[in-house]
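Schema walk-through. Below, the input block comes first and the output block second. Nothing else is stored per chain. Lengths vary across the set, and this one has 323 residues.
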Amino acid sequence: MSANSVTGMSIGLRGVAGVLAPRQLSLEELASAGRLVSSPQRLRGLGFSHVHVADAEHDLRWLARQAARGALAAALVRPDEIDVLIWASALAADHLVAADDPEATLNGFRYPSGWLQDEMQLDRAQVLAVAQQGCASLFAALDVARAMLLADAAKQHVLCIGVDVLPPDAPREILYNVISDAACGVVVSRDSPRDRWRAYYQLSKGYYWDTPRMQKEILAAYFPTAKVVIDELLARASLRPNDIALVIPSGVQPGSWQILLDLVGIPPDRLYRPEACFGHSIVADNLILLTEARQRQKLTAGDRILLFTYGFGSSWCCLLLEH
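--- output ---
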């Protein structure tokens, strides 16, 4: 085993936190406002019931701040102990702080990562952002965080923030999934006492870059490629499907997870069942549900946890943790 492998064994998700926008809208309310493509009956049959929607008080910055505070508190880490801050959003608009005069050139440089560093007094932190990974942006940020810790022994903690908020009147359905506004925060640390990093695999296919034009092709490729990615991750970790204690899903159609687990041979009872279905929050789903699983004490020491997501662009990503 290489030196990097040995060092990497102690890197893990020391603190996690998920935040949903407080305001809720039912499928019927969304339909009456013309913000759904499918009928409420069809979406309810797919496992959805409502979405969480940001408002003027609980906006993107509120969500990011709450997620950062929650992750730091869960990790028992002070702001001045954070070495790196990584902002991850799928939507291009969420990488800028809105301005009164968007045409002014300098307003294109108002970054929420800098705002959050100042807001949270993360004075020691390097700041960067991850983009163009769609719903996989947070997974990519976690991978970057681990790589930075491996590369520089002086770094101890990286704070990753994943957040996306749709425009106020935007449709709330994407490819038969309803979308909530939410954020998550993750402190990736050396010598983490739990949820230690065991393996990661990402498969990107630029062929699907033109998302509006390639919707049918993406739907056709989703399951076969997801199986390839999960199979490869398990092979790299020298594990069998039955070795996975818990699968933390994203918020896409609940029924799709049963299909995926059948394809890869993971027993269906290993799928985490959330307390409520809030839909798909773009980048934050898996970590919101991992936070919930921790709080509900659904994990025991040594459990191998699998997280999987897909992001437009297109990237299939799978992360293996040990609790």
